[in-house]
UniProtKB/TrEMBL annotation, chains A, B:
Keyword Translocase carried by entry: no
Pfam families: HGTP_anticodon (PF03129), tRNA-synt_2b (PF00587)
NCBIfam families cross-referenced by the UniProt entry: proS_fam_I (TIGR00408)
Principal subcellular localisation of the protein: cytoplasm
Gene: proS
Protein name as it appears in the record: Proline--tRNA ligase
PANTHER family noted in UniProt: PROLINE--TRNA LIGASE, CHLOROPLASTIC_MITOCHONDRIAL, PROLYL-TRNA SYNTHETASE
Keywords: Aminoacyl-tRNA synthetase, ATP-binding, Cytoplasm, Ligase, Nucleotide-binding, Protein biosynthesis
Location(s) in or outside the cell: Cytoplasm
Aminoacyl-transfer RNA synthetases class-II family profile domain boundaries: 34-283
Function: Catalyzes the attachment of proline to tRNA(Pro) in a two-step reaction: proline is first activated by ATP to form Pro-AMP and then transferred to the acceptor end of tRNA(Pro).
Organism: Streptomyces ureilyticus
Length: 471, 471
């Protein structure tokens, strides 16, 4: 007899499966103010691991962390025309502080270009102060009418980088370096996520940018999700804040800037890219707990053995947790570890011990087989790396098998409607075709060059548009 | 000829010295909304090191990190009478979101008791769910009329712990464990700060608590600064949110709670406790850069040598930075490293190299002497530990020498007015004396027992009140 499913199956109702998984794996809850979320310890643990890894990569580029105020004078927002137009509908506004109405309302930051540029214009005096490379970890608020946990929330956590450079080329190269070395590399190698790196069309650009680089991932239902973005801001914000430097040649020049961000949305992507009908599958390199050693029963010999095994696995560098909660039913604990997506379970019962074996259950391939206990410490590091590679391969294969090469808007719409992506020559689509797609809730996720690289311009010959429905 | 002072001397104008130091050491700037601050990379680096150290200590107690929303429905605040009364005058209120007036305004969290209890009341069902030990790193907003960078800012960064327990005793012991093992130990051993651990009087308690433990430090001008606090909340918030659990005996019972926090104010304390007329002095265990190796001149031999020395010091575990910016005047670089308080400077010039020596300048004792280059790697770890110990000793000696034992309110006021603390028997002072002190802007910082431990109650015989002016 088949057991009752713990989650709504993905094939029945993907959005409900997503919500079920987030609740049952204890990743997050809704907060009381519409669109806000409570990130529970298990979900926050994923974010902490992401932060550590990304923070090290960001620092390797020479970028330093700093912190800028949450509250921004409302008037600042209007200094850059495109920026205010982009963000005005999403703002949360503080009108009262300390029991009084404020002379000037303050907005809760939806992003920090404006407040950071107010500092940059003071800090940058000479070419010696450049490049100025700053990152901030924090929270932002964008009022969300159709919230969904992790994907679109009124408040979310992120890192936002902001840099100023002496030349256009330096700024352009730095934005690309972040997109490749920090974001794409992290998502592929740590999160085991297949992502397509491309440039946004003019319509899809960040408000105030002259170019936006993006990473797009295909979720389990074939929709796209935008992950990290990196923007060339040109001199738009420098003009708005008069951020100038004295060049080597003795001229006062405007700086060239970038900004780039990645958010708690990556947790939602992790769920929708790697999750299955039993729950989450956490990539081993990300997992705070890579292997759990479970005592099947509360037998003294078993308990002693699982603790000893835990120590041995720790000694070879595996992040391990011992589950000796034998007052809880074994089956319930297994379901919980499957929901939480811990890559490896090692189950130890009295009968296994007699044989010197344990059951090795691998969450990612979904395999289960007895192995000699003494071989585990030697085996596990390679098992975890194999599973890491398998996750990435599965996500790449999904994208490849569900991406259609098309040549008309109609075909592109059809591909998107049937749960996939389409690739169409940008020359055949153009801004007009892009507008037609929008009528069917299909968007150009990004443009890529013929050889798969990032196009140097929107109009470079051979550009291909990757189009899809998106979260 | 004496060089012109870089900072206003402390003896001339302590508050101005503080502001000068923060600006010139590039710790922080004022933000555009009154009372907000920009934490610059060097200041934020201190915070990151504090966070890492504290986070590890917090996790050692079994506490897990999580994240709760910034925005709290205004009605939540009024559920606990003392709490709302304490925080109402400091609230920032969001009245508009997404272009519309909100049906119910939201407050920007001044602290998260209310929003966290809304979750706790859902998460806690049975005694098996207890203790529930949660910590959050984040920002809070308390409208500040007389702001001062790091000490009182409208927005600040902090960690706030929130726990729920089955019994009064467990909650009381956990609050004490945090205060001793996490806060006091961190401040003494990592920050090299002498702190007095005691309990607050009823008047000075956290809004909604039944007991508040505090750590008080004496600043360079003899005033007190409250550092970490840990609160026993009793069942006040459990009642407000009906947070109950099914006990082992099958009864529905209210949980017992604690909350505890420490903030970016610790950076201000670091400045005012360890700073001198040349700038900050960073305790070696905290310092991201413990030693800087300076090339006096841009001579090839010198440059090669300082890089080699940097590598050798790194190899013995010293956090070292090489300063080879020989296009900047040497004297200016020295002043900058002194301002920033890097514990050790090793200055290498062409003449030193001929002798095989370098100049070892120790910021904390203020000494400077030539040493054999080959001895440095062996010497430095012990030098740094000595300087760490010296800082703690200096701060303890300051407190001891500037604390008077008194027996009347008049003497206590006089001691505080002349830049020091006073100790007075609580039996001689009492709530009435406390009110008298307040007229002179003097407060009871905490009560300590006769033997220096934390009193079990406010009225325990032999309690001594530590009184002072405070930031």
């Amino acid at each position: 007899m088949a057991k009752a499913p713990v989650l709504t199956p993905r094939a029945d109702d993907f959005p409900r499966w997503y919500q079920d998984l987030i609740t049952k794996a204890e990743l997050a809850d809704n907060g009381p103010v519409r669109g806000t979320m409570v990130i529970r310890p298990y979900g926050y643990g994923l974010w902490e691991r992401m932060q550590q890894d990304m923070d090290a990569r960001i620092k390797e580029t020479g970028t330093q962390n700093a912190y800028f105020p949450l509250l921004i004078p409302q008037s600042y927002l209007s200094r850059e025309a495109d920026h205010v137009e982009g963000f005005a509908p999403e703002l949360a506004v503080v009108t009262h502080g300390g029991g009084k109405e404020l002379e000037e309302p303050a907005v809760v930051r939806p992003t920090s270009e404006m407040i950071i540029n107010a500092s940059f214009s003071k800090w940058v005096q000479s070419y010696r102060d450049l490049p100025l490379l700053i990152n901030q970890w924090g929270n932002v608020v964008r009022w969300e009418l159709r919230p969904r946990l992790f994907l679109r929330t009124t408040e979310f956590l992120w890192q936002e980088g902001h840099t100023a450079h002496a030349t256009y080329e330096e700024a352009r190269d730095f934005a690309a370096r972040i997109q490749h070395q920090v974001y794409a590399d992290f998502m592929r190698n740590t999160l085991a996520m297949d992502v397509v790196l491309g440039r946004k069309t003019a319509k899809e650009r960040f408000a105030g940018a002259i170019n936006t680089l993006t990473l797009e991932g295909m979720m389990g239902d074939g929709k796209a999700l935008q992950l990290g973005t990196s923007h060339e801001l040109g001199q738009n914000f420098a003009k708005a804040f008069n951020t100038r430097f004295l060049s080597k040649e003795g001229e006062q020049e405007l700086v060239w800037q970038t900004s780039w961000g990645s958010t708690t949305r990556m947790i939602g992507a992790l769920v929708m890219m790697h999750g299955d009908d039993d729950g989450l599958r956490v990539p081993p390199r990300l997992a705070a707990v890579q292997a759990v050693v479970l005592a099947v029963k509360g037998d003294d010999t078993v308990l002693a053995k699982v603790r000893e095994m835990g120590d041995r696995l720790k000694a070879v560098g595996v992040r391990v947790q011992v589950d000796d909660r034998t007052d809880l039913p074994f089956g319930r604990r297994v379901v919980d570890w499957e929901l939480k997506g811990v890559p490896v379970r090692i189950e130890v019962g009295p009968r296994d011990l007699e044989d010197g074996t344990a059951m090795l259950a691998r969450r990612i391939p979904g395999s289960k087989e007895p192995v000699a206990i003494d071989s585990l410490a030697g085996l596990l590091p390679a098992v975890l790396e194999d599973d890491q590679a398998l996750l990435l391969r599965q996500s790449r294969e999904r994208r490849e098998s569900r991406t259609a090469e098309v040549s008309t808007v109609e075909e592109a719409v059809e591909a998107a409607a049937s749960g996939g992506w389409a690739r169409i020559p940008w020359a055949a689509l153009g801004a007009e075709g892009e507008a037609e797609l929008a009528e069917h809730a299909v968007t150009v996720r990004c443009l890529v060059a013929e050889d798969g690289s990032v196009p140097e311009s929107e109009d470079a010959p051979g550009n291909v548009a990757v189009v899809a429905r998106a979260y």
